Each structure stands twice: as structure tokens, then as C-alpha cells.
Amino acid sequence: MIDLLVNGSRHTLDVSADANLLWVLRERLQLTGAKYGCGIAACGACTVLVEGAPVRACVTPVGAVAGRAVITVEGLGGDHPVQRAWVAEEVPQCGFCQSGQVLAAVALLEAKPRPGEREITEAFRGHLCRCGTYPRIRRAVRRAITLMAEPQRATR
Amino acid sequence: MLRVDRRNFLKASAGAGGALVLGLVLPGCSGDEAEAVPLQRDLPAGALAPNAFLRVEPDGGVLVMIPSSEMGQGVFTSLAMLVAEELGADWARVRAEHAPAHVAYANPSAKNQTTGGSNSVHGFFLPLREAGATARDMLMRAAAARLQVPVDELRAADGIVLHVPSGRTLPFGQLTADAARLPVPRQVSLKEPSELRLLGHGAPRLDTPAKVDGSAGFGQDVHLPGLLIASIERSPRFGERVRRVDAEAAMKLPGVRKVVPLEHGVAVVADGFEAAQAGRAALRIVWQPGRGSVPEEETAWARLRQALDTTVTMRSDGDVAAALSHAAKVITAEYAVPFQAHACMEPPCCTVQVHDGGCDLWVPTQVPDKVRRITAELLDLPEAKVNVHTTFLGGGFGRRLETDYVEEAVQIARVVRAPVKLLWSREDDLRHDFYRPASLHRLRGGLDDRGIPIAWRHDVASPSIMARVWPAGVRNGHDNNSVQGASSLPYAIPNVDVGYALADLGVPVGFWRSVSHSQNVFAAECFLDELAAAAGQDPYVLRRELLAAHPRLQRVLDLAASRGDWGTPLPANHGRGIAAASSFRSHVAHVAEVAVENGAVRVLRVVCALDCGFVVNPDTVVAQMEGSVAWGLTAALKGAVTLRDGGIAQSNFHDYPLLAMDEMPDVEVHLVQSGEPPGGVGEPGVPPLAPAVANAVFAATGRPVRRLPIRPEDLS
């Protein structure tokens, strides 16, 4: 039995400790925001936050995150400043990689509220987007920096 | 007012709940095809659904059925805008859904429901506007009756009918039930350009919120009660079949439910993806070699080179041989463009449920009608019993024009008495794609004594996509599709020959964003720069002079050059390149600026000019150009698919890298408002990108680029 704390909810699951976090989230908890893109931590589509840090779920055994706070894109609630920035900049095209991109931005801005361009680039290393939304991701991060600094200000 | 005759195959009939709906009967069709259009089913009481494309609901909501597949190009929004504009809808109340597979949703420009060839807005531009205008007309007439006023005193906008003289208003929702009882108009009027409020102005994408909050349903995300997961072990070598399989060890693994042998592989059906993968690894399969074998990489190129001497004529203007014989200067160059994979972020997948009533499929596909047809054939069902639910596509790019993964899923589901989701791994995807064909190009050009090009010969050798998908279209080795972008060379050169040699290498080839334009335009546009260099001419000026007969292409060339600061000084080791091409009814020019430093190319800036005719949603068009730059740069700078041991050497993103954020240049997009009918947007930005970058490298290093991807050893 594994205790998982996902998006603030506790789940006790009958899975082995080496079961893969991505597939436990997707198949056992029906949290499908994290995507399977490569299975080798090379694309970032499976990214979730573990105690605030971005983690590639596709190479993470659930045992490694037992009892630790896991956040998936569903846990952001849809109105997170990063998500509002993503909507305002119309970032997604096909959208498949965007859960991971959004969470990479959340992790970056939680750790560094005012990142420079180089830090933005570094935070998105290993997050692939075949549609080429990179310029908009960058713009959305800049917008999110402002939104997070002034949480009361209306957007859109 | 633009008058449009109502489609003569629309036939009105009374539906449930007093709502008026249209049946759709095509001449010569009967039985399955005469079934009711999908919007007729489960129609809410009091809703107005005058055709297959929209439903206005009593609460004022508007549902638009999107006949094309949303794969990132924005059709959920742009096609819904066409309906909403003419309807006078409140955009905030508009929802979009994928239409099911049905003849009512065939793209008029393709006569099928394929999303490809950049033709969604082009094909549906008038029909969807007419669909919206039809509903608006009925709502206005219902309002006229209710208010006892002439209909021409009414206006519809923002989901409200306004009586202009009195200021009285009626929201759409209060009119739908009355409107549904009125006859469907035979003719409708479309708005004048000056009346447009959405089209050309833009609207927020309807799919963005769900793609940002994680709720968007991709094929991979489909869930059904009792769902099982399938994964297929295939030979790493093309053409091999299963001779024998020992599944005993696999069947003993926890979670493995069933092993289903297929002709070309063995499926393991399990409780989850991990168990299915473990089951695959435990299979012991003996493979039966195929008839032909795939050559090694070097041999493949040698075969393409041999084929170049055997081309058939695809275009012949003037007398190239004579012109070359008296040319002041003759230049020859050979260009090599490799196989490429689609590598959609979402690997192929398909969920199938076979049940007593027929079959349901949930699938990311560009061809829902083909999915329906092949499923009906495989299961021996009438097509009316097959329901195709198109999910969001995690990328398409031509990969999901194929139905290989659908056929596999149906074959597995037929055996397993439970809903099954087939998931391909990334390795499966890269090794079993239908690749952009590798191609070798030999170009020969002649200049007269003033440096003006007088002769051009472009020979192409490559495998043929058409030879696989439509062999009847390839006669005596003539394949128009394989010389797209070469045969349409737009430059005013009096003597032009284009030749093609079909060289089957045993590798499955398919449609890859912009298809043959991508490789042929690369070779042609690079060679034009080589001619310009030999003539001592500026490559922009030379193109400009040779494009007098192509004003739309010339205009984007000029725009890209001026906005791209063509001709202004650059630092050492920097270069600027230009390239232009017309494809898919649109015209694009790029100016790329590169830095060549430490044996690597860095693309700093791409200035793109596009004339795609009437622009529906400008921001989406800009996004597609940004995406075309990323797509083109991945092919120009990153990896290639190469042949090894009868299969593909690459297997995942570690050895088939995609462009990353730190490699993305600044992209500026400039749109030309030409007033022409809408052309394509998804593909036309790709072809000129690689040659613009290659020409920039040529400008920086003085050494022409003659193969892709650009390698460090080609830079000095």
C-alpha cells in the first residue's frame, strides 16, 4: 500500500512502490493532465510538482513520492496566474505538452519570482513542444511574473 | 449582399421537441448514408438546428459542430467563427465539438472529411458562413413575427435580435422554438466585408482554457469502465511478420490479460500501460523476414544517386539542353534531404469498444470518415453502426492521416470482449512512422553573359507516397506529388526541365507537414542562391526580378526583405538568407538571420511574410507561422531518421531531438491583406524556412549548404 498526497487529497493505493507515478496518476486516479510523451524524461509532458519542484513522473516510482505533496495541472485550479497568463497569450496549439509547460512555469516562479531570460530558458530545458509555442511560453511567463506580483489585478 | 443558394441536398424535416432539423440526402446515396445528421439525435426541446453545423439552444448557447480535426491549427475557433459571425452570436456563448464521421461534414474542397492539405478554412469558408446565416435568418423572422415588425428593421448581433427603430431586443434563446417551426430559407445573405466583427478581427481560442487546465481530452486520455490497455511488439525491421510467438512468460505477469497475435506484431492486453509493456518484453517472437529488405543508410543514398540518371520528365519549358550548351556559365549542385519522422507529442493511440449495437471509437485522427469505413469493413458492420469520436489531436502533421493504429486497435478489440485502448510507445512511433521521404536532388543552371538565368534543370529521386496510397495515380513513374514545389518553380526562366525518379527503398513514406514542398523547395531555393552567387547578384534582387508574373509571391518577398532589414550590415560570422514559396494556395517568404560560431548555427531571427488571402483569426495565423518556423528548424538543424539493420536507427527524443526553447529564434510575422479567398496556413510556412536558414549560412560562411540537417562539418 502506498499513501499518495495528490492535489491536497490523500489516496491509499494498492500498488507496488516501484509502480510508475505517471501511470498511477493517469490510470488509477484518472488525473490525465500529465501526459506520456517519451517515457525517458526527455520531453517534459509528464511533469508534476513534488513539494514544489518539477519532476518527470514518467521515470519516478510512486514509492519515491509517498506521503509527499504532489501537484498535477488539475491541482492548479484553472485560475492560477500562470494559467491566466497562458490563456491571455494563447500559448497552446495542439496543447499536449502544455500541462508540463505550465507546471514548469509554476515551479520556476515559486522558486524565483523575477527570473531573467536565461533562467526562463533553463527552467524549460527538456520541455519539448512540436508545435513551436516557445515564443508564447516566454511571453506568458513574463506576463505571469506581473500577475503573480499583483494578484489583485484583473487579467484578460 | 452576397446571395448564396442553399445547398440543394438539404431537405427539411420536423424533428423531436418541435425543433426543426435538416436531414441530409445526397443524390445517389441510400441506406447508411441517408441516415439522419448527427445533430438531429438528442436535440434539446426548443433548440434551433437548421443544418448539420450548429444548434442554437433555448438558454442562448450556441454549439458548433467542427467538421475538421483540431490538431493545434485552431479550427475549433476559426471554423466556429465562420458560423458565429453570420449568426450574430455572442462569442462567449459559443461552444465547439468535433463532428462525428458523417458525409454531412465532408470538406467541399476535398469531398471527404480529411483534415489535410491546409484546406479547412479554405473549404468551409462559405458553407459554414451559410450555415450560420441560415439560423440567423430564421431567428430574425421569428423575431419579426413576435414583434409584428418588418424583418428588415431587425439586426442580429451578440446573441440578440434588435429592433432598430424601437430599441426592443429579444435574445436568441427566446426565439429558437419559434424559429425552429419556420421553413429553412432557400437563400441566405452573407455579411459584407465592412460588416464583419469576428472574421479578420480575431476571437479567443475556444480550446485554450481546457488545454491550460488539463481537462482537454486527447486520445491518450480516454477512459471507459473496464478499459484495458494494449501495446504491440513489432519487429524493429520493416516488412517482417510474426512466424511464431511464445507468450507463456508474458501471460504469467501480473496485470496481463490476453495476448493477441497480429500479422505484423503481437499485442499484449493488460490492466495498464506498464503491465502491457512488461508483457511485451516477456514475449518470445520469431520473425519471418519480409520479401524486400531495407538498405543501410549509405546504400540508400547510392540508390537514390543512381536513380537520378533515370528520371522521367515532369515539366519541360523551352529547350534546356540547348540553353545550357550556349550558356556563359553552367552550375551544378546536388542536395540531400533525409527521412524525417512526424514525432507528434502524442504517440498514436486509439480506443475501441465493440458492442452488440456496433462499435465506438475514440481516436485522434485526421480522417474520421476513413476510420469509420475501415472499421466497418474489419468488423463487417454497416457504417451507420460505427461511431467515431474524434478527440483532440496531440499533433497531427500528416501522421494521423494514416489509420494503421486504428486497424490494430479494432483487430485487438474484436478479440477482447472489453473496451481497449491501444497506446504506442515513443519508440513504436519513431520506428513505425510513415516518414517524409528521403530525396536527392540534382540541379543544373545556366546563366547568360549578363548573369541572367536562362536554363534550369531539377531532377528529384525519392520514394513515392502516392505509390503506396494511390498507385493508380503514378503512371510510368510519373508522380506529381513527389515534385510539388519543383514543378511549380515560379521564376521566369525560359528553359526549365523537372524530372522525377521513383526509388522505392522499402521504407514506409507518408504526408509530412507541407509534403514534398519541404524538400523540393529547399533544393530549388538554395540553388537559386548558388546561381545568384555565380552571377554576382543579390539573391533577393534576383528573385524579385524573376517573380514579375507572380505578384502575390513577389509582394511577400518584398515585405520579408524590408522588414527583415535586407541589405543592412551584419557582424562577422553572421548571415542573412531569404527564400520564398507558394504552396497550399498561400504565399510565404522568410528572411533568416544566423550566427555561425564554434562550429554551430544559431538562428537569431526569422522575419516571415505571408499572404494567405482572407485572414479569419489573425493571431492563429501568426501562431501557425511561429510553429512552421519551429518545425522547419527542427528539420534544418536537428536530427534525421536514418536506416540501420533493416529498420530505423533512432528510437526516442535522445537520438531524434526536436528544437528546444533555447534554439527558437525571434519570429516576426507580417500578414498581407490581399483580399483573395482564404488559402492554407498550417503548411505554407514550412517550405521556405530551411532554405532561408541554409542561404543565411551560405552568406555567413561562403560555403553553400547542400544537405539537411546542417552539420558542423558543412560550416567551414
Structure description:
The complex is a heterodimer of chains A (about 160) and B (about 725). Chain A is an alpha+beta fold. Chain A has helices at about 20-30, 80-90, 100-110, 115-125, 135-150; strands at about 1-5, 10-15, 45-50, 55, 70. The radius of gyration of chain A is 15 Å and the shape is globular. In chain B, strand 26 (about 575-585) and strand 27 form a beta hairpin. The termini of chain B are far apart. Chain B contains 17 helices and 31 strands. The model of chain B is unreliable at about 1-35 (pLDDT under 50). Chain B has a 7-stranded mixed β-sheet, with helices on both faces. A 5-stranded mixed β-sheet of chain B has the order 17-25-24-23-18. Helices cover about 25% and strands about 25% of the residues of chain B. At the A-B interface, helix 1, helix 2, helix 3 and helix 5 of A face helix 4 and helix 16 of B.
